[in-house]
Please model this.
Amino acid sequence: GQNIDQPTEMTATEGAIVQINCTYQTSGFNGLFWYQQHAGEAPTFLSYNVLDGLEEKGRFSSFLSRSKGYSYLLLKELQMKDSASYLCAVRENSGYSTLTFGKGTMLLVSP
Amino acid sequence: KAGVTQTPRYLIKTRGQQVTLSCSPISGHRSVSWYQQTPGQGLQFLFEYFSETQRNKGNFPGRFSGRQFSNSRSEMNVSTLELGDSALYLCASSLARGLAYNEQFFGPGTRLTVL
Model:
């Protein structure tokens, strides 16, 4: 079956670094996405990994290990506005746009 | 470029009624997907449409249905509403032209409350 696990909640302080982990067991794999969702808003795209390794984009980086079914999102120099839910999602089939989501990690950044 | 739009933004219905939600994708996007988001289950996939055809469907009962029009706009319908259908319904569009990347862009959602 499909299973995508990520921690429910995390807390961190402003200026710090936080790593949000995601493990997945899916019937197929054609890419892993990270989305950010602020309360009451739509999810917005952060990163995409389809090959093993690290993808860096400003303060955000995402890592993928396909053999381990594992990804993480690294947020550096945390800001208060980074308080949000972070969603890990897998595209299982290259023929579809469909994503299978984890339940999300609520990150609270405190001063 | 305008983003994904969804109407209405908020809706209150009673059990047994039916509801229709609308989604207009980003111009040029041919794929539209629908998701249900609840606090307990997170984002769950409902269905995906491409060129007016449903090409993928999630594990939801037949009360949930949808369609896509020739201009790529999409509607979803829920009949015989139940209390458990209360959720945020999100629509997402993508280019879907065989790109490996193929990011989905989400609309603001329709908040449905069933009383």
Remarks:
- The first strand of chain A starts at residue 3 and ends at 5.
- Chain A has no helices and eleven strands.
- The mean pLDDT of chain A is 93.
